[in-house]
Amino acid sequence: MRHFLDFEKAVAELEAKIEELRRMTDPGELNIAEEVAQLSDKAERQLRAIYSKLTAWQKTQVARHPERPKAKDVISGLITDFTLLSGDRVFGEDAAIVAGPGRFRGDPVMVIAIEKGSDLESRLKHNFGSPRPDGYRKARRLIEMAGRFGLPILSFVDTSGAYPGIDAEARGQAEAIARGIDACLAAPVPFVASIIGEGGSGGAIAIAAADFVLMFEHAIYSVISPEGCAAILWEDRANAAQAAEAMKITAQDLKRLNIIDRIVREPLGGANRDPRAAIASLGEAIAGALKPLQGLTPEALRAKRREKFLAMGQSQLG
Predict the structure, then answer these.
(1) Per residue in 250-275, pLDDT tens?
(2) Could you tell me if 158 and 197 are in contact, meaning their C-beta atoms sit under 8 angstroms apart?
(3) For residues 168 and 251, what is the distance between their CA atoms, to the nearest angstrom?
(4) Over the chain, what is the mean pLDDT?
């Protein structure tokens, strides 16, 4: 059964009527077929109207949709011969970071992704997509490995942020994130990052300081969650919607600010309605982003990456 968000109530009612008609009546009857077609058309128009004017908070809800494709779905859809690598060679394995070599359209790549999980068991296993220091050290290790073997890096980001627990802080969470960002910026190979759901804080940028940053149409990317921002500024998480608007966390805002490089269109109603089509669109965007980076020397890649991140915000300062 499809999960509907609060603002999709009108569409939910129409689709429920369509399903009821299909269950109770022979769809071959002309009058019923026509009624189903009319309701389907009305539902699509309603969905198109809703999604043409989503607020930042509504986009946050879409980015967190439980049926939205997760990192493992994207890897399964785009990467062949994927080999999972584990451990940070310091402390242990962090399942929130799913990474290893594979092939993208036949060419070898290194994949680094943050996996949230799709049900309770997998969410617990992957710590709800909140990596600990061990995960970021693993990511750094594989970024450096990619450099040694000349493998382009593809990262897929979907996290509310790094794990904020005491044990993570005790094991150097901030340092692990900082070194992860440093490894991204120093990578001598092409690096394309994709924000597929939530891109939360340093927990996201630790694997997203790339040559080219793609972002799904209804994903979000921010320094802190809207709830966290509201708790700090208004001392009330109930102001999350107001915070989301102020923070400029949507793909459209971030493209205008030159924080990301390209918006990847999602199927009508979000990637959750047609994950396969969404993943296919992302694959096309990744291929397009990689092409001009291939053939550049390590020095040229690092220089362009440095210029890209130093230029962020410059137009706003003037």
Answers:
(1) 999 999 999 999 999 999 999 999 99
(2) yes
(3) 30
(4) 93
What is the rounded average pLDDT of the residues 282-295?
96
What Cα–Cα distance (Å) separates residue 208 from each residue in 9, 112, 156? 35, 10, 8
Question: In terms of CATH, what superfamily is 60-317?
Answer: 2-enoyl-CoA Hydratase; Chain A, domain 1 (3.90.226.10)
Q: What percent of the residues of the chain are helix, what percent strand, and what percent coil, each to the nearest 5?
A: 55, 15, 30
Buried b (16+ CB within 10 A) or exposed e, 271-299: bbbbbeebbebbbebbeebbeebeebeee
Give the type of residue at 207.
I
Give me 75's structure tokens. Answer: 């890897």
Write down the pTM of the prediction: 0.92
Strand bridging mode 107-114 / 97-104? antiparallel
**Phi, psi at 67, each rounded to 5°:** -100, 5
Sequence length of the chain is: 318
- Per-residue pLDDT reduced to its tens digit, 147-161: 999 999 999 999 999
User: Which two structure tokens, joined as six digits, stand for 317?
Assistant: 């300062």
The DSSP result for 241-306, as a single string, is HHHHHHHT-BHHHHHHTTSSSEEEP--TT-GGG-HHHHHHHHHHHHHHHHGGGTT--HHHHHHHHH
- Tell me the C-alpha distance between 139 and 141, whole Å: 5
Please tell me the predicted confidence (pLDDT) of residue 103: 98
